[in-house]
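Ticket #4471: structure output looks truncated?

Reporter: J.K.
Steps to reproduce: submitted the chain below (424 residues) through the standard prediction queue, then opened the result file.
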Amino acid sequence: MDLERICGGLKSAASILALQNASQKNAALKSVIDSINKNRATILNANKIDVDNARKNGTSEPLIDRLSLNDARLDSICQGVQIVIDHEDPIGKVEGGWESPKGLQIKRVRVPLGVVCIIYESRPNVTVDAFCLAYKSGNAILLRGSSAALESNKAICAAIKEGLAACKDGVPAAIELLESQDHSDVDKILNARGLIDVVLPRGGKKLIQSVVQNARVPVIETGSGVCHLYVDDEGDLDMALNIAENAKIQRPGVCNAIEAILVNQNIMEKFLPALEERFAGRVTFHADPECIGALKSSAQKNGRPDCVVAATDQDYGNEFLDYECVVKSVKDVDDAIEYINAHNTKHSESIVTNNRARARAFQSKVDAACVYVNASTRFTDGFEFGFGAELGISTQKLHIRGPMGLEALTTVKYLIDGDGQIRG
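Returned output as attached by the reporter:
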């Protein structure tokens, strides 16, 4: 891999993009939508190859779901690009202005980061999401996907480049996909100071830790998702069941799915049998000693005793990414908050309660990018937040936090105008 040559081309593209106006960038993105639709059959056929290979390799169904594309998902991807088009261009936005005591006119404006690299696993939708956010914010992007989605990513990138080439002001060189799966390439990327301005890892805990620990290039850290739902004794239990089902079962292989349900001890005997019945054997419960009796009793009565097992120390704080979930008893909201802050990944947490004071305490004290009251953690998503797409969910506290949209790939520049001032 000639990283210097690749990044040199991306830097040149970024310098062009940085000077384009919103109309030019939007026209190019609209052309990309047209090209994705034109090449839909090719993209879906390539994705089928990836999915078939994943099944042959024994990949779990939740992770296959994360890998899979269909017409509805391509429609959603294109809709996301259109939302990005409709958003205000952040580049050149004046965020503040003032006059200094010496008469200097100072403005703070938004500018692109430059060359962005994203290292990601499985999800081929990330290829489009990352590209369109980078392009609209004036950045060129280097994509390093996983072998699991290689054929899908190749087909999508070809469609994107075709769309950019078809547009008068499109900049095809603003996107490059590394097709090589040599792990040494990742090491080169992480040490490419001066060639790459920022790296974003998006995937499992192992990938993220590897990037954060080894990178010499600046990193925006996305987080694995050990998310919790706390069911308070002043909560609506039917609501709690609906939220738990959605947050755990709808798509268990994604980072905003819950991995643990915390139950106030005052409602355990009522809530846990209802939870077991609602999940109906679809999830294996890893239950603590206080919860296991009520769950097992209900499971045995309903003929599914194997869906309840005793939790181990390794289960607490584990990201299952599957049809598995911890169930744990807590004394009160403060106990829940303490447990969550000790075991979460600072991603998304939720409480079900009708007690306003407890809700506000939960939101104030829980350390996470997104903290919900009476809603599913599945809403932690750039599309759901109105960004159209996302680069990932940042769980760090510097630069950006939570779903990362257009502004995540920008920084600021100070523009200062004077009339001959010198400092005394």
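Triage note (M.O.): checked the attachment and the full token line is present. The first helix runs from residue 3 to 17.
Status: closed, working as intended.
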